């Protein structure tokens, strides 16, 4: 079977938020300054332990996610950023992203991020409409977002993503299209547009919400590509749109099954054929972060069939789809030999297309992508 590239992706989980949003089921919550410091020290211990086993593998991309990584003050984050530089060998052109929420950024924080090599920032706007932000339980308003966005530009960030959400309670189709235009006019390099999903156990799951109907949500999604296309964005993944050469390399690495290492509470990893996740128990993580055997859970060694399924499942998230040649090189067999029946079935239904040696979802296929992709898991 073909080999993966030697390079590596890194993800760091910062689980702090000022307030948890009403729809959020991520591993996050408020923390005191002392709690943040204790966590960063634990993360540094994990970094030091992990880096000893990496044999100086070059790191192509780094993603600092959360939570809200822009919550901790400069001196706390500086320890983390120094640790990354000290323990890992970042490629000269590494893409280094930090997630941030409006209202938590300052010129000092942005200058610190730039000084330590962060060159991409992802800002969680969700909506430019204050009424919709209140409905989501966000703590910021649109004006605060604009201040944060322009502050990031002034600090020298030339690669910015903005997160947007549709099918929000009370949102109309026309309202969503207007939101898209409002944000596209600002000219960020990248826009992530995804629908609200009601997760069990969140405040939203216990409420009766005035959500758009299924047909409206279908139209909301279907028209994103056309609206953003007029502003110079192209769709390269189910929920992601970028200007030329501004795809998020870190996320592409996930979908192409590059090796990635997740550090911090609840962070997931894929290294070689092994998948594992760090413990989600904060006290357990703080106590044992330097002992990888104690914090890594859900270990799974992937079979050849698992890897094939993931190659298809994840690769089909990208609009360019999967390469038949790459499949042959990775697995030493043709894609038709393994998935011939499934491919024929969905081609006949018009949900899969094949051109130039690649297989991808059609526009209709994207809408039922989960059902189609699930059929490739052997």
Helix content: 40-55%
Low-confidence stretches: none
Shape: globular
Instruction: Name the quaternary structure.
Output: single chain
CA-CA gap between termini: 18 Å
Largest sheet: 9 strands, mixed
- Overall mean pLDDT stands at 91
Strand content: 15-25%
- Structural class by helix and strand composition: alpha/beta
Number of helices: 16
Question: How is this structure best described in words?
Answer:
Helices cover 41% and strands 22% of the residues. The model has no long low-confidence stretch (mean pLDDT 91). The longest helix has 20 residues, at 33-52. Helix 1 runs parallel beside helix 2 and helix 1 packs across helix 10. The protein is α/β, with parallel strands linked by helices. It starts with 7 loop residues before the first strand and ends with a helix. The protein has helices at 33-52, 74-87, 107-115, 130-136, 142-154, 173-186, 214-222, 224-229, 249-255, 282-288, 292-295, 304-315, 324-331, 335-348, 363-367, 369-374, and strands at residues 8-14, 58-66, 89-100, 120-126, 160-166, 190-195, 234-237, 240-242, 260-263, 268-271, 274-278, 296-301, 322-323, 352-355, 358-361. The chain contains 16 helices and 15 strands. It has a 9-stranded mixed β-sheet with strand order 7-8-6-5-4-3-2-1-9, with helices on both faces.
Give a quick summary of the entry.
With 378 residues, this protein is an alpha/beta fold. The protein has 16 helices and 15 strands.
């Amino acid at each position: 079977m073909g080999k993966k590239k030697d390079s590596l992706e890194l993800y760091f989980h910062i689980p702090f938020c000022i307030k948890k949003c009403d729809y959020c089921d991520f591993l996050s919550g408020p923390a005191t300054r002392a709690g943040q410091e204790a966590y960063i020290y634990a993360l540094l211990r994990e970094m030091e332990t992990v880096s000893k086993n990496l044999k100086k593998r070059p790191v192509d991309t780094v993603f600092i996610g959360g939570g809200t990584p822009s919550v901790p003050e400069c001196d706390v984050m500086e320890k983390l950023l120094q640790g990354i530089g000290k323990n890992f060998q970042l490629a000269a052109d590494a893409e280094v992203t930090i997630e941030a929420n409006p209202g938590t950024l300052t010129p000092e924080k942005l200058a610190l991020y730039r000084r330590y090599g962060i060159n991409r920032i992802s800002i969680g706007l969700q909506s430019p409409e204050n009424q919709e932000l209140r409905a989501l339980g966000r703590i910021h308003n649109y004006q605060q977002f604009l201040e944060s966005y322009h502050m990031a530009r002034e600090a020298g960030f030339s690669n910015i993503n903005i997160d947007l959400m549709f099918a929000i309670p009370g949102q109309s189709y026309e309202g969503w299209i207007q939101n898209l235009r409002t944000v596209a006019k600002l000219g960020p390099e990248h826009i992530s547009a995804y629908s609200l999903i009601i997760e069990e156990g969140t405040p939203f799951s216990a409420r009766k919400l005035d959500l758009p109907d299924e047909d409206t949500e279908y139209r909301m999604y279907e028209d994103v590509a056309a609206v953003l296309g007029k502003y110079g964005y192209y769709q390269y993944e189910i929920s992601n749109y970028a200007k030329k050469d501004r795809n998020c390399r870190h996320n592409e690495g996930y979908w192409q099954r590059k090796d990635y290492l997740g550090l911090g509470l609840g962070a997931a990893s894929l290294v070689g054929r092994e998948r594992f996740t760090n413990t989600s128990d904060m006290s357990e993580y703080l106590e044992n972060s330097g002992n990888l055997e104690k914090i890594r859970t859900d270990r799974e060694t992937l079979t050849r069939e698992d890897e094939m399924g993931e190659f298809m499942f994840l690769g089909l998230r990208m609009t360019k789809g999967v390469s038949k040649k790459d499949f042959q090189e990775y697995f030493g067999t043709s894609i038709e030999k393994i998935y011939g029946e499934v491919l024929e079935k969905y081609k006949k239904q018009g949900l899969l297309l094949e051109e130039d040696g690649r297989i991808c979802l059609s526009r209709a296929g994207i809408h039922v992508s989960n059902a189609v992709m699930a059929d490739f898991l052997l």
